Every structure is written in structure tokens, then in C-alpha cells.
Backbone:
């Protein structure tokens, strides 16, 4: 099964086992992703979703995976409590994400405030 179906199953699982309502949007042609990109994207999204469940205290969260010809954009957004950038050093989840993104020459941008957190990742497809 493909990446998008796997993500749908993961989001369904989160929605049926916890209080946060997750919404998933996927777009593009997942068939052109090779194994490395599929697995990397899944692991990144999964860690972002786990972080939202564990830390955000959000009511709602959105996750978007958009594939274009040359690029993948991963976006997550929650309406939770947010965090300060110095707490980034406290775990290995975000460090792992940064490592994976850097390895693929991508970029990550985290915007967090007391109204929630938005994370946007771009990875060029090669
Ligand atoms: P690990 O991922 O290693 O199991 P962790 O989740 O605490 O532990 P990171 O994933 O690196 O570590 O996240 C670092 C910290 O950033 C978290 O401990 C938490 O304080 C904060 N954080 C991350 N995502 C969110 C979020 N969506 N809302 C609020 N706080 C967050
Ligand atoms: Mg984590």
C-alpha cells in the first residue's frame, strides 16, 4: 500500500484513540516517490503527530502532504499550547526530523505560540 493510505490509517488510529481531532489532506502523485522518500515522509509526519498528541493539548490538528513535480511539502498545524524554541533540545524526535530533512537538502520552519504550533517542511524530490 502507498504512503497516502498508510497516513490515512495512522490518522484514523489517532482519531479513534484520543481526544484530538486530526484532519489529513494529501495531494499529488505518490507513485513517483521512491522508498527512501516514502519512509522518510512517513516517519517525519508520524513524529509530528505524536508530538501533537503528547505535548500540544490541542482540540484540532491538520496535517497536509503535498507532492509536486520537484518538491514535497509537509505541514502540520495544531491549536494547542505551543512551546519555546529552547525546549526543542529536550527530546530526540525533532532532532531526528531535522537530521532527516537536512540529509535530503530540505528546510524546516517551526512557528509556535500560545495559540498553537505550525511546522512546514520542504524537501526537494530528486
Ligand atoms: P521524543 O520525541 O524524543 O520521544 P519529545 O517528544 O519530548 O521526546 P521532541 O519530539 O524533540 O521530544 O520535542 C521537543 C519538545 O518540543 C517537546 O518535549 C515539547 O515540549 C515540545 N513540542 C513539540 N511539539 C509540540 C507541539 N505540537 N505542541 C507543544 N509542544 C511541542
Ligand atoms: Mg517527540
Residues:
Amino acid at each position: 500500500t502507498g504512503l497516502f493510505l498508510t497516513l490515512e490509517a495512522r490518522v484514523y488510529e489517532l482519531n479513534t484513540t484520543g481526544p484530538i481531532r486530526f484532519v489529513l489532506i494529501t495531494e499529488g502523485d505518490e507513485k513517483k516517490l521512491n522508498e527512501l522518500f516514502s519512509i522518510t515522509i512517513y516517519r517525519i509526519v508520524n513524529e509530528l503527530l505524536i508530538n501533537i498528541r503528547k505535548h500540544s493539548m490541542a482540540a484540532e490538528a491538520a496535517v497536509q502532504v503535498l507532492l509536486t513535480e520537484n518538491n514535497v511539502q509537509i505541514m502540520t498545524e495544531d491549536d494547542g499550547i505551543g512551546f519555546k524554541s529552547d525546549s526543542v533540545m529536550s527530546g530526540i524526535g525533532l532532532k531526528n526530523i531535522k537530521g532527516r530533512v537536512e540529509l535530503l537538502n530540505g528546510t524546516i520552519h517551526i512557528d509556535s505560540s500560545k495559540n498553537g504550533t505550525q511546522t512546514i517542511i520542504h524537501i526537494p524530490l530528486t
